[in-house]
Pilus assembly protein TadB
Amino acid sequence: MPPHLSGALVGLLASVGLLLAVTRVPALRRPTLDDRLAPYLRDPGRTSRLLASQRALTPFPTLERIVGPLLRDATRGLERVLGGGHAVRVRLEQAGRGTTLEEFRVEQVLWGAGALLAALAASLLLIARGSVDQPVVLLVGCLLAGAGGVVARDRALGAQVARREQRMLQEFPTVAELLALAVAAGEGPIGALERTTRTSRGELSGELARALADARAGASLVQALQGIASRTSLPALARFVDGISVAVERGTPLADVLRAQAVDVREAGKRHLLEAGGRKEIAMMVPVVFLVLPVTVVFALFPGIVGLSFTA
């Protein structure tokens, strides 16, 4: 390794160590006002916190407990930088993962740290081989890789929400028809929900079971169903909840409303398939125009060009 690169690496390690030592000075880690008032304002738990089971976020729970304070500090810093805690909580509810905002921020920190370590390993390998003469470029690349890991975890959450809502939309017509059959057979709204949740499986059935549990806990059926609409961003499911609410409050035939909702969702699914088919048809023109057609022209013109060359 060239002397200037080794000196830069040693200086980087020394500065990181000095920064860690300075940030851990007790005078700089004085508790805030919120930390001092929190033990007197929060509701004390019924059991000891030592007996509370904490879910491990990594395959190494012992190492996770050791670096837990560092992870919490990094999580707070990430929350201050990114913000948007309410929007993230809404998306976690939509994903149905049962993960808190703090756990999600820890996952983001872990993803960013993993990407940063991978980039550092690749950078050290390049420096050892002498392929790069400017370590500043590698340092910027490592920082961008860490930020990319954090953003990638956020994108993964958005993809989970989209997949879950797509499954719920596919399950919706069948669940609505099951509810309509149960209501037409003489069941009440709560009885129809119980029968449907017992005989079906899936994301939408889980949401209906959660709404049924809320109704049993003391909330009205309309409020419990509106909780489903608030935990998803599907317009069809919001219309479904509104239709049931109007039918329960005004006494209109619930079975007809549910059948109409199922028909509307099936028609929307057909329109979505037609639109997707149209987009795929346009995409299929790309290999035809840029690959198949040029090859066909070459096969058509090549014999004539060869014949002209022989004639000349």
User: Anything to note?
Assistant: The chain has a mean pLDDT of 79.
